[in-house]
């Protein structure tokens, strides 16, 4: 176990204001792998003050220089790729190969994308007799979740720095260790003191203090819809901008003309990835009634292969929550075809890869975000019925459509009430905007649209 002292504030590691610590537990074996300080409102205030002091200088820094610092940050993360992967595996329980391929590699790519954008973005444009300036919005509070602990931070920090903002990061208390590696990389990249600050702590204490702080101009939060509502309410009192990436209950719509085996197998893999702890996971599979039984058999077979391949969920509370949803599905009449609520291992916070058939749209497991390796398969009568079911939740974060003809899939996707749709297994694009409709959030992350969230617009008329 490694004890980590201090917060990264004003370009240096400094002692925390209090003495309390947070134990970080490996969810695979339930052993403590490290500790971090439990930050207080005093720590948050010091970090925000450092960010405000650094703001004028960083905002005035030429975009090319900001791009150079981001390039150095990308290189620093790349040099730490193995350590990043090992750290995420220890604190999240993710299998090492997945940590290497996703938890380490994706943040490196995102940091690189913003290095390029900072150098090429038109921060000033002429519209008629006006010159329009795109300026940094100010001090950013980045409050991040545990499921993709480094990616979710970099997806906020990189565009904020590219825009000329300064940042205070409060990582999730379950997975704070990898954020310290980011702070080290930021320091080595020559980012000026106070531009990036890191405060570890509990959400109701450090997170709330950060969201409430009058020195913060934008709160960027990724997490549950319930906490998002709370942050939005706090921000409303100060007329403060928020960017919220919240829950999802995404539909994977398999049209009758699709390659059923491919659509089902990719769909199951999507749900099981990261132990189901992905807000954009396609947790509702919609299949035409004529192909439904075949799809159920394929999904059950595919899920069985993941029994020894996926990691645990993040903690005991989350494990019990997911198992509770599985029990609820059974109680409401859904048919288990793979997995179940039992404990697959004696040690660790593991959940069986689970597939439900005969799920109806009014069931709890078809409406609420479970955030675990649980797939619900629903049948539909025709295309209009499929669209109604797909759009029939309070969420709208992501989704997928499969069809033999790409144009058919695209036509359906255009009518889905969701922020991102994969067509016939389309690959993740770190430059494409990511964010949701309805209760899945406000704003967008990644690419040029993610950069725009951190900019304020001013027009000068001549």
Characterise the protein shown here.
With 462 residues, the protein is of the alpha/beta class. The protein has 15 helices and 23 strands. The strands form six sheets. The chain has a seven-stranded mixed beta sheet, with helices on both faces. A six-stranded mixed beta sheet has the order 10-9-8-11-12-22, with helices on both faces. It has a three-stranded mixed beta sheet with strand order 1-5-4, with helices on one face. The longest helix is centred in the N-terminal third of the chain and has 25 residues, at 96-120. The chain is globular and about 65 Å long.
List the helices and strands and how they pair.
Layout lengths: L1 E2 L3 E3 L2 E3 L6 E6 L4 E7 L3 H20 L2 H17 L1 H12 L3 H25 L3 E4 L2 E7 L2 E5 L7 H13 L2 E5 L6 H12 L7 E3 L4 H10 L5 E5 L2 H13 L3 E5 L5 E4 L5 H13 L11 E5 L3 H13 L11 H16 L3 E4 L15 E4 L6 H4 L6 E7 L2 H8 L4 E2 L2 E4 L3 H8 L8 E2 L13 E2 L2 E2 L4 H6 L2 E7 L1
Parallel strand pairs: 1-5, 8-9, 8-11, 9-10, 11-12, 13-14, 13-19, 14-17, 16-17, 19-20
Antiparallel strand pairs: 2-3, 4-5, 6-7, 7-23, 12-22, 15-16, 18-21
Helix pairs in contact: 1-7, 2-4, 2-5, 2-6, 3-4, 4-5, 9-10
Protein name: Aldehyde dehydrogenase family protein
Keywords: Oxidoreductase
InterPro entries: Ald_DH/histidinol_DH, Ald_DH_C, Ald_DH_CS_GLU, Ald_DH_N, Aldehyde_DH_dom
């Amino acid at each position: 176990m490694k004890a980590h002292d201090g917060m990264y504030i004003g370009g240096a590691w400094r002692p925390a204001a209090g003495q309390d610590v947070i134990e970080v537990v490996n969810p695979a074996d339930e052993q403590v792998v490290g500790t971090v300080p439990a930050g207080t409102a005093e720590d948050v205030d010091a970090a925000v003050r450092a960010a405000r002091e650094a703001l004028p200088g960083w905002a005035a820094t030429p975009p090319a220089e900001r791009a150079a610092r981001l390039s150095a940050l990308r290189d620093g993360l790349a040099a730490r790729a193995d350590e990043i992967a090992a750290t995420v595996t220890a604190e999240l329980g993710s299998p090492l190969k997945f940590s290497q391929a996703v938890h380490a590699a994706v943040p490196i790519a995102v940091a690189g994308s913003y290095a390029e954008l900072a150098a090429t973005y038109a921060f000033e444009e002429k519209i008629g007799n006006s010159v329009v300036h795109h300026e940094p919005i100010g001090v950013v509070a980045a409050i991040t979740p545990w499921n993709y602990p480094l990616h979710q931070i970099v997806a906020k920090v990189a565009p904020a720095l590219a825009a000329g903002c300064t940042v205070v990061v409060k990582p999730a208390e379950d997975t704070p260790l990898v954020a310290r590696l980011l702070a080290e990389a930021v320091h080595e990249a020559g980012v000026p003191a106070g531009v990036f600050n890191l405060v570890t702590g509990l959400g109701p204490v450090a997170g709330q203090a950060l969201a409430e702080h009058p020195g913060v101009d934008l709160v960027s939060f990724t997490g549950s819809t319930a906490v998002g509502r709370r942050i939005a309410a706090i921000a409303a009192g100060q007329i403060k901008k928020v960017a919220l990436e919240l829950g999802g209950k995404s539909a994977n719509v398999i049209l009758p003309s699709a390659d059923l085996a491919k659509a089902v197998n990719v769909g199951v893999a999507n749900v099981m990835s990261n132990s189901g702890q992905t807000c954009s996971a396609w947790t509702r599979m919609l299949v035409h009634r004529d192909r439904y039984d075949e799809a159920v058999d394929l999904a059950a077979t595919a899920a069985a292969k993941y029994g020894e391949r996926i990691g645990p969920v993040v903690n005991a509370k989350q494990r019990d929550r997911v198992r509770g949803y599985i029990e609820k599905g059974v109680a409401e009449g859904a048919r288990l075809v793979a997995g179940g609520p039992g404990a697959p291992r004696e040690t660790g916070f593991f959940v069986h890869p689970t597939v439900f058939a005969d799920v109806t749209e009014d069931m709890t497991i078809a409406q609420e975000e479970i955030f675990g390796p649980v797939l619900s398969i629903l049948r539909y009568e025709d295309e209009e019925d499929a669209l109604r079911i797909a759009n029939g939740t309070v969420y709208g974060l992501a989704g997928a459509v499969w069809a033999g003809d790409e144009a058919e899939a695209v036509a359906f996707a255009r009518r889905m009430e969701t922020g991102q749709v994969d067509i016939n297994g389309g690959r993740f694009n770190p430059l494409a905007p990511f964010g949701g409709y309805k209760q899945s959030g406000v704003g967008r992350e990644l690419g040029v649209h993610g950069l725009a969230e951190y900019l304020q617009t001013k027009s000068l008329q001549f």
